[in-house]
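Hi P.,

Sorry for the delay on this. The queue was packed all week, but I finally got your sequence through. Input first:
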Amino acid sequence: MEKHNTTIFNPLTAPDFLNSATGPIAIRMTNDYLFRALLQRNNKVLRGLICALLHLKPEQVQSAVITNPIELGSAIDEKTFILDVKVILNNNIIINLEMQVINEYNWPERSLSYLCRAFNNLNPGEDYHKVKSVVQIGLLDFSLFPKHPEFYATYQFLNIKNHTVYSDKLRLSVVDLTHMELATEEDRLYHIDKWAALFKATTWEEIKMYAQKDEYIREASNTIYQLSQDENVRLQCEAREDYYRRQRSVQHYIEEQAEQIAEKNSVIENLDTVIKEQDSVIAKKEADIRAKDSVIAEKDADLKARDSVIAKLQAELDRLKGNSAIT
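Then the structure:
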């Protein structure tokens, strides 16, 4: 099990590994393996991030323990690798943290699944009031609701009429790393925007700039640099990057296929519309023909009636002529 670094941060004495770091970052912090490695390697960073996201003061955190640690640097199976970081805070709050860079279009259902699973935390014989609070936090490199973007959104179960909270023991939060510009004053007060900027940084120069403004981010920056020098950790991060590329390729292929299907469906719909219009024209013409046939039939009936009358008159005329000849 990976041991936590609980050394108290002192900016005057802490080694600054960042001095020698320059240029582009090989592995960005949106890499979920590096994100997990950072939180597992440095407990101070874990506490700092949790304080920012939950709006807590450092003294309010007595303990933050990762309950599902991994052996950093060891090979992982991309199919079974657990991405989320499970934390027990102060021994009474369960927190689930996850960095997600690929939009699989299932985050609401996935996060609810994690939340409900974690909420089932009573031991046999315990009363319901002892159930631990659960917080699910996703750091997403995509917009969950593109039509309603928000940098840091929090959801709870509440009455839809009067907004009364049903229970404060369930909470869902989402950080949209693509919309840092929407950070509110409160988000900036707790430096959530600075954490997001750290995760999205592409150069060491950017990281150095953010590290100057927050001791926890400075601690995180130094740990990130140390992790980037660990060959085994770096290899696992690169494996995750390869996995992302394959996922994106598959997603891109699926999207292309979906576009082609949509185009074909559009062509089919247009053809259906044309056919329906033609059927409508044909139906109208057939109705006109039937109307004309009806008129012709009526005229034929009239002619037959007239012919019948004429025939009767002719017969009467012939009869009268015959009588006249006899006389």
